[in-house]
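Hi all, posting the design record for the shared folder.

TITLE: backbone redesign
STEP: 1 of 1
STRUCTURE INPUT:
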């Protein structure tokens, strides 16, 4: 995993309730994938969070984030 992703994961894991982070990274660095797919799935699977709020700049984008998570739980052979 590239160093910037390792840093992002470390920052996400270190978050305490009520805290937030912001990141600037180039296109194609998987920022959205980590924040809107991997992080919510990780928090859900390990029961770290009971509820997760995902926001999108538009309703279709927010729906897409939720659909991606649903698809992982329903279609991923490892789940």
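Okay, here is what came back for every position:
SEQUENCE:
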């Amino acid at each position: 995993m590239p160093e910037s992703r390792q840093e992002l994961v470390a920052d996400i894991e270190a978050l305490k309730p009520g805290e937030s982070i912001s990141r600037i990274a180039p296109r194609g660095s998987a920022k959205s994938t980590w924040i809107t797919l991997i992080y919510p799935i990780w928090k859900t699977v390990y029961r770290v969070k009971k509820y997760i709020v995902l926001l999108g700049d538009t309703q279709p984008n927010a729906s897409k984030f939720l659909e991606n998570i649903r698809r992982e739980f329903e279609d991923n052979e490892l789940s």
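COMMENT: The mean pLDDT is 83.
Let me know if anyone wants the other runs.
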